[in-house]
Design goal:
Helix content: 40-55%
Low-confidence stretches: none
Number of strands: 12
Number of helices: 17
Structural class: alpha/beta
Mean pLDDT: 95
Order of helices and strands: EHEHEEEHEHEEEHEHEHEHHHHHHHHHH
Distance between the termini: 50 Å
Length: 348
C-alpha cells in the first residue's frame, strides 16, 4: 500500500483516484486555492463529484489546499499533479513551501501541454523540472501520463489504456505496478518528448477533425451529412497523424509514439467528443473562432486554441503549408480569426 496525494480536484484528478484506491493505496485529494467551495460541496455531499456525476469512493479523502503541509507531504510515496497547465507554477510553489530536495517523492504529471521558453519548445515535464531546479531541487523524478482516457470513463471503471513515460523505465514500471488495475491498463515508455508532444498537439488536430461533418460537403442537407461524413473524417485523421509525426520527429521524439496510445489513441478519443471537437464543429459551420468563443463557448477553455496561441509563431517559423496544411489552416483560423479553409491538395 502506497500513500498518494493528488493535487487538483477537477474531473481527471478525481477520476484518477479510482484506480489508485482500487489498487489498495491511501489516497488524498487536495484542491487548489481556487477550489475551496468546490471541495466543501464534495465533502458535504458524500464525495459526489458534479463534473463526473458520480460518488468518488469513500476511502478517498478530499481536503482544502490549506491543509497541505510539510508533515502530510513528507509521508507520501507519490504526488500526482492534476491541475491545468497554468497551475504548474502554483504546484512548484507549494512543493517549495513545504519540502526540501531530499524529501521530494515521485511526481506523476496528468497535466498536458506544450509551451515556449527562450524561443524553444518545452514540454511540461521539462518546464516543471526547470522551475523545481530554480527552487534548488536536484533529486527530481517526473513521470508523464498520456493516452485515450476520458475522466468520466475512468471514474466508472471502463477499460482504459494509458502510457506512463519516464527516462528511467524502472520507475515507470514501479508506478505501473502500484496503480494498474483490471480496468486501468498501463504501458510504459522512455519517450517523454514524443508522449508529451502528442498529448498536447492532438488537441489542435481534434478541432479540425471535429469540423469534418460540417466541411464534408457544404451543399448537402444536414441529415445527409450526418450519415456520410466519415470519409472526410478518416482523411483528416490520416493527415493529422502525418503532421503529428513531423512535429514529434522535429522535436526528437519517436515516430512509434505517434501511432500508439499517446498519439493515435488520444486523437481518436478527443476528436469524437470534448471541448476541442465541439469548437471544431462550430468553426466548420462557418463561424470564426472569436464568434464561436463569444457566442457558443464563452466560459469554456479550449485547450487546442490555447496551445495554438502559445506555440503558433514557432510552428509557422519551423514548418510550412506544403508539409503541414492542416496545422497551418488551424493557425489561420485561431491566430488570424479567419474562416476555416482546408488545403486538400497538400495532403500526403
Amino acid at each position: 500500500m502506497k500513500n498518494i496525494i493528488i493535487l487538483g480536484a477537477g474531473a481527471m484528478g478525481s477520476a484518477f483516484s479510482v484506480p489508485c484506491i482500487t489498487n489498495n493505496n491511501n489516497v488524498k485529494i487536495f484542491g487548489t486555492h481556487l477550489e475551496d467551495d468546490f471541495i466543501k460541496k464534495i465533502i458535504k455531499n458524500n464525495n459526489y463529484h458534479p463534473s463526473l456525476d458520480i460518488n468518488i469512493p469513500k476511502k478517498v479523502k478530499f481536503y482544502k489546499y490549506s491543509y497541505l503541509n510539510r508533515e502530510i507531504l513528507n509521508e507520501q510515496d507519490l504526488i500526482v499533479i492534476a491541475v491545468n497547465s497554468k497551475g504548474i507554477e502554483w504546484v512548484v510553489n507549494e512543493l517549495t513551501k513545504h519540502l526540501h530536495d531530499s524529501k521530494l517523492p515521485h511526481l506523476l504529471l496528468l497535466t498536458k501541454g506544450l509551451s515556449i521558453h527562450n524561443n524553444r519548445y518545452e514540454v511540461l515535464v521539462e518546464k516543471m523540472k526547470r522551475l523545481l531546479i530554480k527552487k534548488n531541487f536536484k533529486k527530481i523524478d517526473l513521470t508523464a501520463v498520456a493516452g485515450p482516457c476520458l475522466a468520466g470513463g475512468l471514474a466508472n471503471k471502463v477499460h482504459s489504456s494509458v502510457i506512463f513515460a519516464n527516462n528511467n523505465i524502472k520507475i515507470a514500471n514501479y508506478l505501473k505496478k502500484n496503480i494498474e488495475t483490471d480496468f486501468y491498463h498501463i504501458s510504459t515508455s522512455t519517450d517523454i518528448i514524443g508522449v508529451e508532444v502528442c498529448a498536447a498537439i492532438k488537441n489542435i488536430y481534434s478541432m479540425i477533425i471535429g469540423a469534418s461533418k460540417e466541411i464534408s460537403n457544404t451543399s448537402l442537407d444536414k441529415k445527409i451529412k450526418e450519415k456520410n461524413y466519415f470519409n472526410t473524417s478518416a482523411a483528416l485523421i490520416k493527415q493529422s497523424l502525418n503532421e503529428m509525426e513531423i512535429i514529434v520527429r522535429h522535436l526528437k521524439g519517436s515516430k512509434k509514439t505517434v501511432y500508439g496510445l499517446a498519439g493515435l489513441g488520444d486523437l481518436y478519443v478527443s476528436s469524437i467528443g470534448g471541448r476541442n471537437s465541439l469548437m471544431g464543429s462550430y468553426i466548420g459551420s462557418g463561424l470564426t473562432y472569436s464568434e464561436a468563443k463569444k457566442n457558443k463557448m464563452k466560459n469554456i477553455t479550449v485547450e487546442g486554441a490555447e496551445l495554438a496561441f502559445e506555440i503558433g509563431r514557432n510552428i509557422k517559423k519551423d514548418f510550412n503549408k506544403k508539409t503541414m496544411p492542416l496545422m497551418m489552416s488551424m493557425l489561420d483560423v485561431l491566430m488570424n480569426d479567419k474562416k476555416l479553409k482546408v488545403n486538400w491538395d497538400n495532403f500526403e
